[in-house]
Predict the 3D structure of the following.
Amino acid sequence: MHDASSSDSTGLDSTTDLVGRFEAEHRIPGTMRADVHLLGDLLGRVLRESGSDGLYDDVERLRLATIQAYTEETSEAFSRAAEIVESFTIQRADEVARAFTAYFHLVNLAEEHQRVRVLREREDQTRSNDPSVSMGSAFAQLSKEIGADAATERLQAMRFHPVFTAHPTEARRRAVSSSIRRLSEFLGEHDLSHGGPDEVRIERSLLEEVDTLWRTAPLRLEKPTPVDEVRSIMAVFDETLYTSIPEVYQRIEDVLRGDKAGDETPVVRSFIRLGTWVGGDRDGNPFVTASVTKKAAAIASEHVLIGLERTASRVGRGLTFDSATTPPTDALLALWQRLRSADDEAAKEIAKRSPNEPHRRILLLIARRIAATRTRDADLAYRDPAQLLDELEIVQQSLVSAGAIRHAYGQLQQFIWQVETFGFHLAELEVRQHSAVHRTVLAEIESGEPLSDVAKEALDLVRAIAQIQKRYGPRAAGRYIVSFSQSADDLAAVHRLARAAVGPNGAPPVLDVIPLFETFADLQAAPGILAEIIEHPEFAARLEATGRRLEVMLGYSDSSKDVGPVGATLALYQAQREIAEWARENDITLTLFHGRGGALGRGGGPANSAILAQPPHSVDGRFKLTEQGEVIFARYGDHDIAMRHIDQVAAAVLLASSPSIEKRNEDAAARFADVAATLDETSRARFFELVHAPGFAPWFATVTPMEEVGLLALGSRPARRGLSVSSLEDLRAIPWVFSWTQARINLAGWFGLGSALDAVGDETLLTSAYADWPLFRTMIDNVAMGLAKSDERIARHFLALGDRDDLAALVLEEMDLTQSWVVRIAGGGELLANRPVLQRAVKMRSPYVDALSLLQLRALRSLREAPEGSAADPELQRLLLLSVSGVAAGLQNTG
């Protein structure tokens, strides 16, 4: 899409001149520009060869027009781009939308590749003056404040717990993701070829893969099943997390210990635990059943056991140490005898192939025991991961005793970290269900009438959890999240349900029942509900069994939809502070579980800055959050990026509880309490003025593709809980956010802030708050990102679809007011001026996103103008969905 060089009939400048100036203005790094040009040229060639006649020329015409409209910012230039879109046939518009979407996938790949390139060039992150950028610098800062011994103690007690969800926000098909991953590998090879003889071969492979990307249907024909979603998540584990996580531990150990790393017992302990809702989250998803939950646990266990078996074999094959040079301990010899007696034939064969190599022999037999665990061979299988760890530690201590210290604390230590992190279950499977379901099911049970299918399924779920725990261990499942927890009875209901499921003589599974406080009212009521529930017998018993550990989940999505993004941010902060104070008063070790989404209206944004803005004692070395959709693949899909992300988040978790950070946050909250009160009151009033206006819900559905988003086969979960579009109460937060994003308004992330800042009115005070109040700074920076991805010109056209000038004016007025204040507070004269890398990425994409937005507007307008009651034109619907997928790829945001 880059190699046209002449002017066309639109009167636009040549491609070379216009694009060259555009790229120069946004200071795109040379290596990244070369990647974008390479991939774009290959796509252009594919379009000419494989597209219909004239497709390439039409794509270029629209591309140039949107670049010029973006750079000139004139209504005439924008109108020219819109006229080009209107001139296309539906079939041509379909092809153009696919072309721009493919281009975004390639640009995203080039940008990710540049991030990896930069990360590899900055191996020594400890030289930064910012202690939150890596674990090494965070540990050094914490040691200065509380001493090295206390810092080490906190490091070893730390926990980072990402939970992968199946919320439907990954707009691209898995086949497309696989093609992009292969392109990434070829691009890496291209870097190494440096014009050598392999360059032609690699570019041919790249061309073939770009052709595959173009020919692959971009839309799923059917929604994925929950089991499909489980297998998609497994790809992230297989390709990155299994190897990235132990390497993170090793890298931190190397930084902290320096030359002594590998010579002594590691100071770093495995601090990551994975969770998953995929196959367990049934809140509003009728397709997640007890059978699906058991299947999800089985798939995850199979993947991790295969990984552990291969690792044991690989490590074992490397331990070719003769007993003369590396004598075994008595404990190792005793272990050999036990393993040999259980697996005599294999032991004889291994001994024959590994004479006088006792450590190697044992690891190879351990690999067989892991395989037996997977195949459920009772004679050889491990009882639990602790049994495997005991054997690995015997091998490790034997190596240490023999002086092979680096081998003891090298690959073998990474293997031990993998077992500690993943167990035999990989990720703890968490269940979530709506509190109303429990009330309904218990009422049915108590009535004595025949049970409905819903009630039978609820009881089957408890039995499924018990079966999972019996087969894979108690860590495999047991966290049961109650959404819309509004009373202590809502939580106690789960234990009542569990007793009903197993009968009077049965033993319920071990359950940690976790309240999820979502709405504004629920967040305010949380401390009182918690105080009541810990007196409940089952809760009290579980608290004692866990050393008074308790987990509480906070919902970012529904609170934002409830009172607006500003009110929700402040309510969540206050709830965390009050819950943390309550926990300290009751000697409870609290973990707050943050239900954050990828988009700003759902708590999205950089995780490390959000962690460092939390109230005192609300982190205390433990951070748990949901990761979903496109965020999972953006943060964990590449090995280097995953390691960097984990390192940064862990650094923030460790640093968040330092005296300096806690004092800073506490002082800022007190100093700017009046500002917070004004922001809260004014923003909520402004938000309610919009969403409580008569006819708002159907207007919202008209001016955004909200209804059509439900047609996208993004995930197995329905977009609504059942109510019609006349009510927003039951609309899920994801389509609420997704729809505003598609309309290039991003309202869910900022609406009400401009009026709130205007009510404060003191620019000097607000600038001071931005400098000294982390919560406020994070909010302003996130809003700046949301506004930078919006577009007032395109927003006007979407809003015009609704024939409500009053509501459209309200939105546009608030958008303009918010942008004006955010720019003044953050400084620099324009959005994201203080974040140049992000600003460059947004600006580089914007004109191309504009092209897809214009295509989406054309389709949406035609659909809205169709006679009432007539069937929707399937070609227009397809064009709309193609553009939705493309805009999601371009903005790198969905829900």
Remarks:
- The mean pLDDT is 90.
- Residues 90-121 form the longest helix (32 residues).
- The radius of gyration is 28 Å.
